[in-house]
Structures are given as C-alpha cells and as structure tokens.
Specification:
Shape: globular
Structural class: alpha/beta
Number of strands: 8
Strand order of the largest sheet: 1-2-3-4-5-6-7-8
Distance between the termini: 28 Å
Largest sheet: 8 strands, parallel
Strand content: 15-25%
Number of helices: 9
Order of helices and strands: EHEHEHEHEHEHEHEHH
Oligomer: single chain
Length: 286
C-alpha cells in the first residue's frame, strides 16, 4: 500500500552539502509518473539530496525504473530481479534485465543476492539467479548491488566462487564489525540505511564507524527502513538527511565533510558524472 503523505516524517533542515541517496524505490514510494517523481525529488532536493538511484525488485519494476531514469536528471536506475522473486526466473526475464542493464542511465545491476529471512524463493533458485546477475554485472561493466539478508557467509562464498565484479555494493549493510572488515578488505562498498540510526543496533553502528569514507554510501531504501526517530513511518529520499547527520555524529566528523565524501564515493562507484541522457537526439532531461 502506498504510504499517505500525512504519515511522512517532517522535512529536516537542508544538509550543508549535497548527497546522493544510493538506493531507493520511487515506485514503491507512490511515484508512478513524471509529476509524482518530480514531487518526491523536489522534496529531496529541498534538503540537499540532489540525486537518487531508484532500484527494481521485479521485472515490471525494472522496466519502470529504467524509464523513470529518463524523466528527470536527478534519477538513475538499477535493475535486477530481487532474490525473493527468483523462484521462476526465466530466460525471457533474463533477456529483459540484460537489455535494461545496458541503458546509459542504468548505473548498476541490482538488487540481487540472497535472502534467508523470507521463504518466497528456494535457496538454490536464489543462488542460481545471484550467479547470473554477477556474470551480467561483469559483462556490462557496471557495479553489482547486493541484497544480503541473513546470508553473509553464502554471499561471500558465491562472490568468491564466481569472482566479484570490479565494484560490489552491499545495499543496506547489515553485518557487524567483523563482517564489515572482511568486506572492506575485499574492496567492497558498504551502503548504510535507516537501521544504522537505531539506538539498539550497536553492532551495526560499530561497523558504520569503522568503514573507510571511500567505501561508504548512504541510502534510504524508501519507503522502508525510516531512520530514527521516525522508525515505522513511511520513508522517502529526503529522509537520508537524518541518516547522514546521525552518521556524522557517530563518526565524529563534520556533516558537510561526510556529505561531500559520500557524494564523491557515489559519483565514483556509479560513474554518475559520466552518465548522459539516452533520449533520442540526446535531449536534456528535466
């Protein structure tokens, strides 16, 4: 169900420097057309969240995300079939995802990986799909955006067996300090969402304090995982500002410095500054 606007957290004061929401679901936030996408993005821009990556979780969502990324210059996309939806991942589905992944404004293959919390898809089907998405990311030369829920060891095992792409991003990183160290040592990028602000998430906050800036991203995963103190309410990209401020306090750094570092990392990881319109004739986006 689409969250009602009245349920959204208050819009915070603008950040002192712009930042990228590295993982959101604009369609699940209720943005269905250009006007509603612009409305969500304008709210985000008002607090300094100047660009977002909208992420697919099924085939229809992938098609929508790729198209939406051509509507507004602040939107980029990532496409894949979510691990919980891989029980019947067909060759036809793969062909669609591969075609979409080659579009200029699709900047990552994801979210893909393993989810052992839900039982919607058998583990062997999830792993087969994960391996296919790893190969796709390598073939198209784009980052792999990983969904890892209660599957840390198998995620690393499959990445090791397949050989990871050049760039791997752990979306909504959920591990402890030990797992963060292992990921950082392999050069992976860790993206932190609202749960890192939860005061009872001590292990996760310890990990977030450790990750080097050049391997750190922030995200909302909106409309899910709203940051403290609005946990349980609907989320939107503008709420990443709450997470940035909390992370800056946790790490003992200036908010502007953290925002600038996160944007620099997002630009590098997803090559955002190299992306141009894929509209006919190279027309400018909004």
């Amino acid at each position: 169900m689409t969250p009602r606007k009245g349920d959204l957290p208050p819009v915070p004061e603008p950040l002192p420097a712009p930042v990228v929401d590295a993982h959101t679901h604009l369609d699940a936030c209720g943005a269905k057309d250009l006007a509603s996408v612009v409305e969500v993005l304008d709210r985000a821009s008002s607090v300094g969240v100047d660009r977002v990556i909208t992420v697919a979780d099924d085939l229809d969502s992938a098609v929508w995300a790729a198209e939406a990324s051509t509507w507004d210059s602040r939107v980029f996309a990532a496409v894949a079939v979510h691990p919980t939806r891989t029980a019947n991942f067909t060759d036809s589905d793969k062909a669609v995802i591969e075609d979409l992944s080659r579009r200029p404004r699709v900047v990552a293959v994801g979210e893909t990986g393993l989810d052992y919390y839900w039982d919607y898809s058998p583990r062997d089907a999830q792993e087969e799909a994960f391996r296919w998405h790893i190969d796709l990311a390598k073939r198209v030369g784009k980052p792999l955006m990983i969904h890892d829920r209660d599957a840390h060891e198998d995620i690393l095992r499959v990445l090791t067996e397949e050989g990871p792409p050049e760039t791997v991003v752990f979306h909504c990183f959920s591990g402890d300090l030990g797992f963060a160290r292992r990921c950082v040592d392999q050069g992976f990028v860790l993206s932190f969402a609202g749960p890192v602000t939860f005061r009872n998430a001590r292990a996760l906050r310890e990990a977030a304090a450790f990750v080097p800036l050049e391997q750190l991203l922030v995200e909302t995963d909106a409309p899910f995982l709203t940051p403290h103190p609005f946990r349980g309410r609907p989320n939107e990209p503008y709420c990443v500002a709450y997470t940035v401020r909390d992370l800056a306090e946790l790490r003992g750094v200036d908010v502007a410095d953290l925002a600038n570092s996160v944007s620099t990392t997002a630009n590098r990881v997803f090559r955002l500054l190299d992306v141009t319109s894929d509209l006919p004739g190279g027309e400018q986006l909004r």
